[in-house]
Write a structure and sequence with these properties.
It holds the Pfam family RskA_C. This protein is α+β, with helices and mostly antiparallel strands. α3 packs across α4. The longest helix has about 55 residues.
């Protein structure tokens, strides 16, 4: 954006430009009349003319000698040729103010753009980092699943689940791990979820983690299965519980 384009020429600009020559008596009669008419309703120009006239008078009083007439003529001619920056009408911003306001607007837009770019970059970096973390977790789980399935003592345990849900367990006592796959779990009321348990022969069941609320399928690698004699699924409030609230299904683990 070119701030200069914000300045629109007005019909009175030519009169404003004559102020300097008017004070030095370097205008024609029509120009003088135009300036005098204009200063009647333009306080800014009237004040400027008064100040310039006083300044010219002081300069004249301090002169030690009268300059040659040809010098005066050259000065007057130069004053008439040199276009002065017109002062603004009352209440109208000056060109400098308009220009600065223009640049202020540009700076504000630039700052907003930079801020938006930084925010977008931060969001994208956060998404990339989260995706990388999720990918790393998925790859780690895939390696663990492959290790259990490839174990020499891997055993497929039938899992009969209610309500049409399907489940499969692969147990490796040697690796002390099991892989459980659950699909088609029935939808639960809001604020509730499924939680997995390893149930020992004696003692309290050990939590193997809760599913996210609304999740109806999962594949998990369960560690520390040595003392467990059964695998259980309970329904719990969101976030899970320290002990099973309601056992929904239970699958015996063969040794």
């Amino acid at each position: 954006m070119n701030p200069g384009r914000l300045i629109r020429r007005r019909p009175t600009d030519d009169v404003h430009a004559l102020v300097g020559a008017y004070v030095l008596d370097g205008v024609t009669d029509p120009e003088r009349r135009a300036v005098e008419r204009h200063r009647l309703h333009c306080t800014t120009c009237d004040t400027e003319i008064a100040e310039l006239t006083a300044t010219a008078a002081r300069l004249a009083d301090s002169a030690t000698r009268t300059p040659p007439d040809r010098l005066r003529q050259r000065v007057l001619a130069e004053a008439r040729r040199t276009r002065q920056e017109p002062p603004p009408a009352r209440g109208e911003p000056t060109a400098h103010r308009i220009a600065w306001h223009g640049w202020d607007a540009v700076a504000a837009v630039v700052l907003l753009v930079v801020f938006a770019v930084l925010v977008t970059y931060g969001v994208q970096q956060s998404r990339v980092a989260r995706a990388r973390q999720q990918n790393a977790v998925a790859q780690s789980q895939q390696r663990d699943v492959a290790a259990v399935l490839a174990a020499p003592d891997a055993e497929l345990v039938p899992a009969a689940l209610p309500d049409g849900a399907r489940g499969r367990l692969v147990v490796s006592r040697g690796a002390d791990r099991a892989v459980v796959t659950l699909t088609g779990l029935p939808a639960l009321p809001g604020g509730h979820t499924y939680q997995l348990w390893l149930v020992p022969g004696t003692g309290r069941p050990a939590s193997a983690g809760a599913l996210d609320v609304g999740s109806r399928s999962t594949t998990r690698v369960l560690s520390g299965i040595a003392p467990a004699t059964a695998f259980a699924i309970s329904t719990e409030p969101a976030g899970g519980s320290p002990t099973p609230t309601h056992i929904w299904a239970s699958v015996p683990l063969t040794g």
